[in-house]
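FAQ: What does a ligand-bound record look like?

Like this one, built around iron/sulfur cluster:
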Amino acid sequence: MSSFRGETRPAAAGFPADSVSDEDYPPLDGPYQNRTYGRALSRERVEGFWRRTAALVRRGAAPPDVGLYAHWPFCPCACGYCYCDFRVPGSSREAASYLAALERELESFRGALRGLALRSVMVAGGTPTSASPGQLDALLRRARSCFEVRPDADISVEASPGTLSAGHLEVFRRHGVGRLDLGVDSLDPKVLAAAGRRGQTAAVAAAACRLVLSAGVRLDVGLLCGLPGQSAASFLKDVRWALGLRPAGLRLYRFDPRPQTDFSREGARLAPGWAAGTARCMEEADAVVTAAGYGPQAGGWRVPASVLGVGWGAKSRAFGAGWYQHPNLERRPAPGPGMPPFRGMPLTLEDEARAFVIGGLATAGRVGGEAFREMFGTDLGAYAPLSAALRSLEARGAVSFDGEGLRLLEKGRGALQRLYHPGVLKLLARSGPSAGTASQTLCRVYERCDCPHSRLVAGEEA
Ligand code: SF4
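The answer part, i.e. the structure of the complex:
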């Protein structure tokens, strides 16, 4: 068990509903599933989502950008800083039974994506390379047999240095895996020991990188900054080590003590000054990385417009039709060989457009005009459901249109809520202070909502 006790972090507290994070405007994006929300959906309903997306794609109303995401939750150890939905398996039988369930789920969606060819496939977790080469071979074979995969599809797998073997690389070569996302995180023995991360040394990590590079697979290395017990010098040393290997991509993350981490579960706290120190360290690292000829965040999974997610904790999005997820395992064993339940909400193209604009402004501070046009077939400024709200935000100087799209000028709470669906705003106004983190509130709001939008959530579409 890792232990971070003795460091300090502001205690989680209740907060007013108007402080919810714009980043969490549903449907949440990204491959990692940290929260479970939405109403129960039947398997048939979910299939209906995919039929609708296929119809939208056929008539050019939705992008033909469809990906498959398979979640492999198992890891050899529990890293105290990790917020992914992972589990250390109790026995090898558990992973075998999970693989059988994954294959069954893939099989059950055979035909549901008719007319949609996969542009990307990602196996992530957890640690997919904690599965044996034979298990990953079976998974990738099943995926290819159930769905049409474009010849130029981006196929990628997440790995950790201590689990990757030459046998895995041979399987990846056979299945056209073009990118390996190697989570090195840190090379500092003290940091790794404090976090409970086992089986990784600098020598092991270097050997794993060389293995990937010699196989001709694109290597993306991930490192973490601001970990408990980590100094700026230690992180910058890791960055220089990674640059020495010349990976195709180097991604630097800030430690994020979300409630799902052991760090937070154990009640640990970050030291005063942590945020400022980590920001300075990231700036310094970005300068080093840029000087070495890398883009600031090269590499990584590009989330497709539509994603079919399989396995516990996986999220799915059938563009313009529905968003759903399988619940997280939350460290429990996967219950039996059956299909995990579906929870989620139907989506309209308008919902997609709102989430696209709010998410883009909240996370990147901008929304590309060209990207919006490609996705929704119209100019953002002329998009009727949002135009009044955008004009009002522009008039108060909160956003501005330039040649490239929309930029966020005013940061802070509530700036983007004018873009929220009116039903969501109504519910937020009613919900009052709520315990928990900002990122969880909006999810709960969606579960309880009885506004017109939530009737969509509950499946009472006109
Ligand atoms: S950091 Fe990687 S190896 Fe560690 S628990 Fe998370 S997913 Fe597993």
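Follow-up question: can I read anything off the structure? Yes, for example: The radius of gyration is 22 Å.
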